[in-house]
Structures are given as C-alpha cells and as structure tokens.
Amino acid sequence: MLLAVLLVAAIYDVRFRRIPNWITVTGAAMGLALNAFLFGPPGSWFSLAGVWFSLRGLGLGFGVYFLLYVIRAMGAGDVKLMAAVGAMVGWQDWLGIFVITAVLGGVMAVILAASHGRIQKTLWNVVFILTEMKSGRPAYIKKEELDVRSPKAMGLPHGAVIGVGAVFFLVVAARFAP
Asked: Where are the domains of the chain?
C-alpha cells in the first residue's frame, strides 16, 4: 500500500507539481485501517493500539512538515503525503524515512542547482536563510525565490523525493532487520 501511494503521488508531483488530496487522504485512511487490523490479537479485526500507532506517525509527519510549510519550504501536498506515510509506517520508521528523504532531497537540490548553473547563488541563499532564521524572520519575505509557492523558485518535486527516500529506507531496513 505504501509503495502504491508513493508511486502515484510521485507521478502526480513530477507531472503536475501537486499531490491531490485523494491520494493523501486515501493513504492515511489505509494506514489507519491496516494498522488497526494488524495490531489486533488473533481473530480480532480491530485494535486501538494499531490506531494509536498510526495516529502518532500521522501526527509527527504532519507536524514536522507543517512547520516546513509555514516557512514556505514545502507545499501542502508534501505535508499531507508525509502525514499519510506516518500513518502507514508509524512514528519510528517515519523518522528514518524523514532523515533519508532530507539527505536525498539535499543531494538532489545540489544536482538541480548545478544543472542550472546556480551553485553559488544557492549557497548565498542558504546563508541568507540561516541569517534570517537567526533573526526570527522568514527568508521568503525579502527574497521571493525562496518561497516554494513562487514561480521564481527553482522547484524540486518533493513528492518524488519522499517516494525514493521511503523506498531506500525500506530496502535498508529489510536488509538489516534482525
């Protein structure tokens, strides 16, 4: 289920630069339902422990990405997609997916900047963002290109990055699972 949701979300994000609500809401609902079923004792069809497991993952995914949305570093679809991922995998595995996605997103952003000949400008923007954050100001107010919603921003379809990061995490976790 996770792979299907991620694949559809990645395709939509690459093609249309948005992730529709029907994908994310369906993913979150499937995560809640599946975990409610899987965590139950044998012969049971429902478990509050499974629902709680999903809700903690959903809440962490939504909360972290909502903060990134507030500073206009992520789109709303990315927030909802990571909430759905959290609902499916729980908060602990979500943290692993988040770390891998963040590193992968950084690498892909550097590749994108290099391919557009914007490495130096990107480095200056990072310094500017950190300076503004230190002062408690959002960087996008003074530089429109730092707002993910701006047409001047150099965009990276983060839904695709989330998909690749999650698959990478699953492969690594399966390889090193006890």
From this structure: 2-118+154-176
Q: What is the pLDDT along the chain (178 residues), one digit of tens a residue?
A: 999 999 999 999 999 999 999 999 999 999 999 999 988 777 778 899 999 999 999 999 999 999 999 988 899 999 999 999 999 999 999 999 999 999 999 999 899 989 988 889 888 888 888 888 888 888 877 877 777 777 777 778 999 999 999 999 999 999 987 7
Selection from 25, 14, 22 nearest residue 162 by Cα? 14
Tokens 């499974």 -> residue: 50
Spatial distance between the Cα atoms of 111 and 154, rounded to a whole number of angstroms: 12
To the question of pTM greater than 0.90 for the whole model, the response is no
Report the distance separating Cα 174 and Cα 25, nearest Å: 27
Exposed, middle or buried, 13 (CB in 10 Å: 0-12/13-18/19+)? buried
Q: What is the dihedral of CA 166, 10, 79, 29, to 10 degrees?
A: -80
User: What phi and psi, each to the nearest 5 degrees, are found at residue 37?
Assistant: -75, -45
